[in-house]
Amino acid sequence: MNVLPADVMKLQMRARTVIAVDVSPEVRLDNFEYGTHLNGWWLLWNSWNPFTKTVNIPSMGDISERLAWVSGERHRKKVREYIDLFLQPPVGNFGTLEYDKFDEIVSLGYEYAKPRVDNFVRKNPHLIA
Q: Which pLDDT score, from 0 to 100, does residue 27 have?
């Protein structure tokens, strides 16, 4: 699973210039820090007690997702050496299926990328045909 295939573009496809756009959302850790163990009785009492905030324990799906993210993040750091221009527009607040926000996302991405691409082209005039 290669979410940022810049290494493939550079090494296998022999691309001279690689521009990568990463739209992965930032990982938000809002789980309760319960230490090295979790007592089921304490968790049951906590869920029934109306005077305490319910503890958010990660599910198996959350843990699997986090493991995939760690693997992807490690690859992302390794592959940065093959990238000539790296763009990471601030679109993390949008969901994958929010098609109704398409125009807003496009506008936000354009506003973010335009000055960076202009600066990149100014520093690399040999790229313009």
A: 65
- 34-51 mean pLDDT: 81
Whether residue 25 is predicted with pLDDT greater than 80 in this model: the reply is no
Percentage of the chain beyond pLDDT 70 is 92
DSSP the chain: --SSTHHIIIIIS--SS-EEE--PPPP-------TT---HHHHHHHHH-TTSPPP-PPPHHHHHHHHHHHHHHHHHHHHGGG-SEEE--S-TTS-TT-GGGHHHHHHHHHHHHHHHHHHHHHH-GGG--
Q: Cα 88 vs. chain centroid, distance in angstroms?
A: 9
